[in-house]
Amino acid sequence: xxxxxxxxxxxxxxxxxxxxxxxxxxxxxxxxxxxxxxxxxxxxxxxxxxxxxxxxxxxxxxxxxxxxxxxxxxxxxxxxxxxxxxxxxxxxxxxxxxxxxxxxxxxxxxxxxxxxxxxxxxxxxxxxxxxxxxxxxxxxxxxxxxxxxxxxxxxxxxxxxxxxxxxxxxxxxxxxxxxxxxxxxxxxxxxxxxxxxxxxxxxxxxxxxxxxxxxxxxxxxxxxxxxxxxxxxxxxxxxxxxxxxxxxxxxxxxxxxxxxxxxxxxxxxx
Length: 270
Known about the structure:
The protein has 10 helices and 12 strands. Strand 1 and strand 2 (10-16) form a beta hairpin. The protein has helices at 102-108, 126-134, 139-155, 167-180, 188-194, 199-210, 214-232, 237-243, 249-260, 264-269; strands at 2-7, 10-16, 26-35, 44-45, 49-56, 58-61, 64-67, 71-74, 79-80, 82-84, 90-98, 116-117. The strands form 3 sheets. It has a 7-stranded antiparallel sheet, covered by helices on one side. The chain has a 3-stranded antiparallel sheet with strand order 7-6-10, with no helix packed on it. Strands 4-9 form a two-stranded antiparallel sheet. It is an alpha+beta fold. Helix 8 (237-243) packs across helix 9 (249-260). It folds into 2 domains: 2-155, Jelly Rolls (Sandwich), CATH 2.60.120; 167-269, Orthogonal Bundle (Arc Repressor Mutant, subunit A), CATH 1.10.10.60.
């Protein structure tokens, strides 16, 4: 289904596909948008992953610069904000996708330690991206074609540099993994597996390099993410709990009050 959205400062064209929620990997939509210089998006919280390919202009994504030739990832249930810099229009394509295999796909394509890549040439795929958004398509096959296009976009991303295997390097990788995968409900054990160390050894390195334990760092990330949502979004307490890796909102509320001395609802009011 094709959809055109016009709002102050931007024009967006989107093709939505039929989605089977049980699918291991699905593409919900592919979009093409142009935002005018100076446009500032409202704070966004997406339910699925969104991969962006920038064609022109410059912007700040959560305060970090992105420009032509960059790709960046929006993770589900985290706050995102885009501010277009005042020089020229900002043009991009983006793909919204999800499914039970999506988080594994992201990890396989080296997004475990970063949400941004530079120096990408999307020109070989521009005709396919244009066709995916603007051409008439058979609904039955559109989903399959767009999932294939997602794989081709991911294949454009540069290879990750060799991991830093110093003690400090392992700790930085573990910190990045915990912070970037917060909404997945990750644990210290997951981080240890991601950096290929035993949990006990990672905890020892972490304490030696930072002076705190991995669980202390993880909890601090959860608190800061919760504060960001409470200040800048209208998500419910249950939705914020999920975004911070908690499946039980009551436990999240007790955790937040223990860590900050204030209940989430009270923090939002202050």
